[in-house]
Description:
With 225 residues, the chain is of the alpha+beta class. 43% of the residues lie in helices and 17% in strands. The protein is built from eleven helices and seven strands. Strands 2-1-7-6-5-4-3 form a seven-stranded mixed beta sheet. It is globular, with a radius of gyration of 18 Å. Residues 1-9, 13-26, 170-177 and 199-225 have low confidence and may be disordered.
Amino acid sequence: xxxxxxxxxxxxxxxxxxxxxxxxxxxxxxxxxxxxxxxxxxxxxxxxxxxxxxxxxxxxxxxxxxxxxxxxxxxxxxxxxxxxxxxxxxxxxxxxxxxxxxxxxxxxxxxxxxxxxxxxxxxxxxxxxxxxxxxxxxxxxxxxxxxxxxxxxxxxxxxxxxxxxxxxxxxxxxxxxxxxxxxxxxxxxxxxxxxxxxxxxxxxxxxxxxxxxxxxxxxxxxxxx
Length: 225
């Protein structure tokens, strides 16, 4: 454990020293989306956020921690596969929310963790390898880009959540169906509410939340996805 902490600290130092972005020029008054747009190196990410309908969410109060793939990271994905992903709102939402962790987690805290649960629901693995901080198979190239509603850590590879078996979310009462994009939006809303109320327990006891998760209140969302 001591060895891991030393490696993590060394990796953090390397990440903080090396940066390909002019962080000082980025105002903390800008939110995550505006910061990404201003950087000029997250064009594909911004396009993806627009396609998934997540721009307004990530311009919200937050706070959020975003492991943001650069344009070079997206360029590693074959063009036909990337175009297919951008056209599939449900899958795209899952991939993007897999890059978001609730709360503002600075690099000094990230390196103390071995995993972090994402808004998508699955956890990412955090480690140190060859003096670098790793998020799954991605390397953190720039850390601690602070924004008005959270923090961005730049990664060099798009990370993908594990495929899950399809579930039948149709409500037997016939009131509607939850699409996966809707489910993930609900998950994000719960995470933000929990942040304000200070505990996940407060959210889990809400009747409205239980209804949304069970599908009984999904009718208003039937048209998305």
